[in-house]
């Protein structure tokens, strides 16, 4: 849920711009799409199988940055922003597993399809984004209004 009293559109715009810039740099210089699920899967495959080690260093650097980013934020501000979750831990774990399966079946995740795929005018990415957005809207409506959780 967005805290509209403390929402700062300039920082959101700057963050989105940095993500877009990172995606453009990776695609320009590596010819790779900045998709978190694909980078994670390729990195794990590279760690497990020696034949899949091409590009392992930049993938690991990306994942380390994803982990270190919040730690740097904590050092700079003293705490992470407050998050309110409407589901218990067990349901969050199940939801995460379902999302992981979906990224496998959908050949990518929100960052790969939503940021990079749409920027390349990919019809498959447009279909994927419309599907996961509609599913998210319907699921949120169902949980908040029909189930009452």
UniProtKB/TrEMBL annotation:
* Localisation per UniProt entry: Cell inner membrane
Q: Which residues cross the membrane?
A: 12-29, 60-80, 92-119, 126-147
InterPro entries referenced in this protein's UniProt entry, alphabetically: Sulf_transp_TsuA/YedE
Its domain of life reads Bacteria
Alphabetically sorted, this entry's keywords are:
Cell inner membrane, Cell membrane, Lipoprotein, Membrane, Transmembrane, Transmembrane helix, Transport
Q: A Pfam family this protein belongs to?
A: Sulf_transp
Q: How does the entry describe its membrane topology? A: Multi-pass membrane protein
Q: Which family does it belong to?
A: Belongs to the TsuA/YedE (TC 9.B.102) family.
PANTHER family the UniProt entry points to? INNER MEMBRANE PROTEIN YEDE, SULPHUR TRANSPORT DOMAIN-CONTAINING PROTEIN
Q: What is this protein called?
A: Membrane lipoprotein
